[in-house]
Specification:
The chain has 261 residues and is an alpha/beta fold. It has twelve helices and ten strands.
């Protein structure tokens, strides 16, 4: 199982001619992905996301809904995968490979997880990041204080392409696969970034007031509702995510839209 991407696959999704917005999903995660994409709709960004589907039924749904779709065609990985299970590990590996494939085409990659809900237009920040030559990576912080950059969150990150960054994200060579295996079942792609990418790149941790992780948002909801560009509903297992989104009125899909999926 591998991801194959050509330039013609990403051209319809390019922002500023240089950035590919992308997300990885499967049939078990479709509702979350559709909810995230709907939150981007007011800003004209939902149809700019390259939706990489692991299984063919998932790809068929998002193609019918008018999204730009790339299908890996692994129908054995179509179900919702719980954190740090075997299938979850494979999905996380595909996220690393997805970044590597886009970067190798000479484009920047902005990877966003399906359990994110946008509250404000992210375009201004995206454009500023792409023109800022001081950093290679802009990434969400998974800590509770801005000054703590021990554990960065790979659920929302912009990675700028360069020979050095491509080499850091090489997870397909024998050495790269061996590196990823050291992170398997230990936060997977997140551990991969924190161990093998972060120490060797110029990283900018996104401010928690604008880009809160789940734990930060759940404990400071009233303040962050006014400042957050997005809310990432991580720090939860399974479909607790959906329940928490509904609790905070951030589940945007109607019953009709859910039935379409």
């Amino acid at each position: 199982m591998s991801i194959q991407i050509e330039l013609h696959d990403i051209e319809p999704c390019l922002l500023y001619d240089t950035v590919v917005l992308t997300t990885l999903t499967n049939s078990g995660y479709m509702l979350y992905t559709r909810n995230m994409l709907k939150s981007l709709q007011p800003f004209g960004l939902d149809k700019k996301v390259l939706v990489v589907c692991i299984d063919e039924p998932c790809a068929a749904v998002f193609t019918r809904l008018g999204y730009h779709v790339l299908c890996i065609r692994d129908n054995g990985m179509a179900t919702f995968s719980k954190w740090n299970t075997i299938h979850y590990d494979k999905i996380c590996y595909l996220k690393v490979e997805l970044l590597y494939r886009i970067l190798s085409l000479g484009k920047h990659a902005l990877l966003l997880d399906g359990d994110i809900v946008f509250q404000k237009n992210p375009r201004t920040d995206m454009e500023a990041w792409t023109s800022d030559e001081r950093y290679d990576v802009w990434i969400q912080n998974d800590a509770q204080h801005d000054e703590d950059t021990t554990n960065m969150c790979t659920g929302y990150m912009l990675v700028k392409t360069s020979d050095q960054i491509c080499a850091l994200y090489d997870c397909v060579s024998e050495q790269g696969r061996a590196q990823y295996l050291t992170c398997a079942f230990d936060n997977n792609d997140q551990s991969y970034f924190n161990t093998y990418v972060k120490p060797y790149c110029r990283m900018n941790a996104l401010p928690l007031a604008q880009y809160p992780n789940g734990k930060k948002f759940y404990t400071q909801t009233q303040t962050l509702l006014h400042t957050a560009v997005l809310v990432h509903f991580n720090w939860l297992h399974g479909h607790q995510k959906m329940a928490k989104m509904k609790e905070h009125k951030m589940w945007l899909l109607t019953e009709e839209e859910e039935e379409e999926i």
